[in-house]
Automatic annotation (TrEMBL):
<keyword id="KW-0677">Repeat</keyword>
<dbReference type="InterPro" id="IPR036873">
    <property type="entry name" value="Rhodanese-like_dom_sf"/>
</dbReference>
<feature type="domain" description="Rhodanese">
    <location>
        <begin position="20"/>
        <end position="144"/>
    </location>
</feature>
<feature type="domain" description="Rhodanese">
    <location>
        <begin position="203"/>
        <end position="285"/>
    </location>
</feature>
<dbReference type="Pfam" id="PF00581">
    <property type="entry name" value="Rhodanese"/>
</dbReference>
<keyword id="KW-0808">Transferase</keyword>
<protein>
    <recommendedName>
        <fullName>Rhodanese domain-containing protein</fullName>
    </recommendedName>
</protein>
<dbReference type="GO" id="GO:0004792">
    <property type="term" value="F:thiosulfate-cyanide sulfurtransferase activity"/>
</dbReference>
<dbReference type="InterPro" id="IPR045078">
    <property type="entry name" value="TST/MPST-like"/>
</dbReference>
<dbReference type="InterPro" id="IPR001763">
    <property type="entry name" value="Rhodanese-like_dom"/>
</dbReference>
């Protein structure tokens, strides 16, 4: 029987206690990033997964390729249901699995994959609080070397995605929020360093709540209780909240934190500022 989740976050102790459990699938969703702003580039981090090591039994989930749309207009465009199903199946995920995702950063990649799973109706998924950084710093076991990426489940256990849920918004929805036609609190999750020193204006009316303000710098884990609530004080009372960043990954960290706080009307702007800037050329030129 798969372990039961009670929160979108699981602790390193929880994962250590459940490693090797039936139907537990652990995924490393790390991505390499270099550059800032529009000059940012990304590549899969399967090399460091093997060389730096990973949680024992974890498989590498390629968020940049397998869990994104290859023909998307911007990087990390969310995948179709069919592409998502195929990628999940190759990693051994079934509809009765419990999935725990982590990465080697502040959690933007694992939160993005968590949000994708949830958007297709899969709720038995959580993010490792503190990620690989906290796991490693606590001296927990690390496996070096690659684990076969393909762990195709038997045909009888084939993974099927549900109909996509309305957890994403597009440019038109965000535009309606900025004009007041369809109000929503707009939350910018990107740190200034990620956007670059000379970036174009962000979306009008936004509240900046960067990822770095949501995690404990000593442990890499999310803030707890009142401290997390305080970080969202300016927007937590809003009926609907839209999070965004540069490309829609850090935005998922804020979305996860808001979900932990019990806010049930949170959406992520897929494509985020890269999409906004290409559709709002006057904002780039200003």
């Amino acid at each position: 029987m798969a372990p039961v989740l009670t929160s979108p976050l699981v602790s390193t102790q929880w994962l250590a206690d459940h490693l090797g459990a039936d139907e537990l699938v652990v995924l490393d969703a790390s991505v390499h990033t270099s550059g800032t702003g529009l000059a940012t580039t990304w590549r899969a981090a399967d090399d460091t997964y093997a060389e730096r090591g990973h949680v024992p039994g974890a498989r590498y989930a390629d968020l940049l390729d397998d869990f994104s749309a290859p023909d998307g207009d911007v990087p990390f465009t969310r995948p179709s249901a069919e592409r998502f199903e195929s990628a999940a199946r190759r990693l051994g995920v079934t509809n009765t699995s419990t999935v725990v995702v982590y990465d080697g950063g502040v959690g933007q990649w694992s939160a993005r994959l968590w949000w994708i799973f949830r958007s297709f109706g899969f709720e038995s998924v959580a993010v490792l609080d503190g990620g690989f950084t906290k796991w490693r710093d606590e001296g927990r076991p690390v496996r070096i070397g690659s684990l076969a990426r393909s762990a195709q489940a038997p045909a009888s256990d084939a993974f099927l995605a549900a109909e996509e849920r309305p957890l994403w918004v597009d440019h038109d929805r965000v535009r309606r929020a900025t004009t007041g036609v369809e109000p929503a609190a707009l939350v910018l999750a990107a740190d200034d360093d990620a956007l670059g020193a000379d970036h174009a204006p962000v979306i009008p009316g936004s509240t900046a709540i960067p990822v770095g303000s949501l995690v404990d710098p000593d442990t890499n884990a999310y803030l707890k209780g009142h401290a997390l609530e305080a970080a969202f004080a300016e927007v937590i009372g809003s009926e609907e909240i839209v999070t965004y960043c540069g490309i829609g990954t850090a935005a998922c960290v804020d979305a996860l934190a808001l979900t932990v706080l019990g806010h049930d009307r949170v959406q992520v702007y897929d494509g985020s500022l890269i999409d906004w800037w290409r559709r709002e050329p006057e904002s780039v030129a200003s």
